[in-house]
Amino acid sequence: MAASLNKVGVVGLGTMGAGIAEVLARSGLSVVGVEVGDEALRRGRGHLERSTGRAVKRGRLSVDEQQAILGRIELSTSFGALGDCDLVVEAVPEQLPLKRRVFEQLDEVCRADAVLATNTSSLSVTEIAVSTNRPEQVVGVHFFNPAPVMRLVEIIHTVLTRPEALAVVQELVERLGKVGVTVGDRAGFIANRLLFGYLNQAAAMYDSGHASREDIDAAMKATGLPMGPLTLMDLIGLDVSLEVCEAIYRETRDRRHAPAPILRQMVTAGLLGRKTGRGFYAYD
Ligand code: CAA
Known about the structure:
By secondary structure, the chain is α/β, with parallel strands linked by helices. Helix content is 46%, strand content 14%. The N and C termini lie far apart (45 Å). Residues 188-283 form the 3-hydroxyacyl-CoA dehydrogenase C-terminal domain.
């Protein structure tokens, strides 16, 4: 069924949305990227140009290929541009009321047979799905940061999802050359449910003065991981990290996921990691 996918929409062109739009366009699909206003759209275009520009610098893409990829991505500030998409992936900030509003709008403008997907990492796909009149067409499609590099994509079904809608997304993920895993609508899905106990403990360890941030990171990096846990949280965003821990804690009451106090304090202070220039580390 995914072979018939031609046009895919992406709503929200922040770090994740822009990365997803790039991955889709790289696979030859026509992409429609939608943002709320001109300034956000300009930032989204900047993400796309920087990320593909980096690949050109590394000799992974020619300038012509970069232009072809960017040329397949139409940018718009209007939801109406999504009207003829076969699938739309929502990647707006992790706030349930906002996501529900976006899905209500998608339900209005998208074709009845279009599949609506959310890239949520911490919210319930079911709660998002029931804001539409087609919850059976709603799935989760969870990419990892940075989306152009990370191979894993979690595909989430709810108790309402039609198998055919799930198959559209499973086949798409295969077409993208990613590793797709399918999971029910449980907080943290598979990867975050396992990863965030560890990340949260690393934050608590740093908070208690157990070791310096550099040594905590160096220890885990030397085990063969690509990044230490505090550097990784800075990449993910401390706001997203806090939300993921809270969601898993709410569902499981597992104390390993009770957010380390330092996480909450840093989020309140606006120290969100790389995206704000400061988290556990400072960035230029
Ligand atoms: N966008 C596009 N490409 C990127 C990129 C980005 N933001 N960051 C790095 N890359 C590419 C580079 O261009 C490079 O590509 P080539 O090999 O083709 O030249 C490759 O990735 C390696 O990059 P670098 O050499 O600059 O740096 P590195 O070797 O240190 O790798 C990393 C950087 C890929 C981010 C690596 O450190 C890594 O894999 N870190 C772990 C990331 C991770 O675990 N992410 C999951 C977080 S959890 C999550 O996202 C889920 C959630 O819901 C919160």
